[in-house]
């Protein structure tokens, strides 16, 4: 059954905005010819869209079967977002040499196992020990009781985002002023959801029973949009400067298509 939960509205709007970002990037840079950083950016936006869209549908359904289904949709993004964000930041800051198969395989182990355990958690309870539907403020809201593997997944995700944050801080220190605006916005966009997730898991949420992490992504998506359109996030990246300086001995100027 369906319900009209107003908390789902900003999540649907966020999901549509994320899909618009993905479409804009793919129209301008087709997948096969896109730089590696652009491809990871699309994957990150896609992971967030799965998370926000899946949770939005959770909030408008009342039957436990549908809630569990859309939880699994959400976990396509939840399980993969941390590693994808780290890979994007490595590519974005010109550290593609680190993106080798051992790192990619190592970062994918926990997300893959997390998603497998989600589908089979009713057997072993590793991810969820229980999942019930509660009436909160007149709306049906799914409420999980987390199992031990969930905390493995959480630590892995936070570790990836912390590593990406250190990469960003290093880039802020090293990069010229022209890049700092976009990097600082990306830093804020990553800190918001992590902080919201920590508040939710510590059971300090003002909206008792609701996961506020997807709502934080709504604000983070606005910051990413500002970085895309105000600071030309994918047109003018720190990696461009590093590559030029590494390969040239003459004085050069690096500009984007708009002459900046």
Mean of pLDDT: 87
Radius of gyration: 20 Å
Q: Which secondary-structure class do the elements indicate? A: mainly alpha
Strand content: 5-15%
Biggest sheet, spatial arrangement of strands:
1-2
Instruction: Please give the number of β-strands.
Output: 2
Distance between the termini: 53 Å
As residue ranges, the low-confidence spans are none
Characterize the biggest β-sheet: 2 strands, antiparallel
Structure in words:
The structure is a single chain. With 260 residues, this protein is mostly helical. It has 8 helices and 2 strands, in the order ααααββαααα. It has helices spanning 8-28, 36-59, 64-92, 101-124, 148-174, 177-201, 213-229, 238-247; strands spanning 128-136, 139-146. It is globular.
Features:
single chain, 260 residues, mainly alpha, two-stranded antiparallel ribbon, 8 helices
């Amino acid at each position: 059954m369906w319900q009209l939960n107003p908390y789902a509205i900003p999540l649907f709007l966020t999901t549509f905005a994320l899909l618009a970002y993905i479409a804009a990037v793919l129209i301008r840079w087709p997948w096969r010819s896109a730089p590696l950083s652009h491809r990871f950016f699309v994957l990150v936006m896609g992971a967030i869209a799965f998370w926000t869209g899946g949770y939005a549908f959770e909030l408008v359904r009342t039957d436990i079967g549908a809630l569990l289904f859309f939880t699994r949709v959400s976990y396509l993004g939840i399980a993969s977002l941390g590693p994808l964000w780290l890979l994007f930041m490595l590519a974005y800051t010109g550290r593609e040499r680190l993106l080798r198969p051992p790192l990619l395989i190592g970062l994918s182990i926990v997300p893959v196992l997390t998603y497998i355990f989600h589908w089979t958690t009713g057997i072993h309870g590793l991810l969820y020990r229980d999942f019930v539907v509660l009436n909160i403020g007149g709306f049906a809201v799914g409420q999980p009781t987390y199992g031990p593997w969930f905390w493995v997944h959480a630590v892995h995700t936070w570790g990836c985002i912390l590593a990406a944050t250190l990469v960003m801080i290093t880039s802020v220190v090293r990069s010229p002023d022209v890049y700092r605006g976009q990097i600082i916005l990306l830093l804020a966009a990553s800190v918001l959801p992590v902080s919201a997730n920590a508040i939710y898991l510590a059971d300090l949420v003002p909206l008792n029973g609701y996961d506020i992490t997807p709502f934080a992504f709504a604000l983070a998506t606005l910051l990413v949009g500002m970085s895309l359109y105000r600071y030309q996030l994918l047109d003018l990246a720190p990696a461009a400067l590093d590559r030029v300086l590494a390969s040239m001995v003459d004085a050069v100027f690096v500009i984007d298509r708009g002459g900046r």
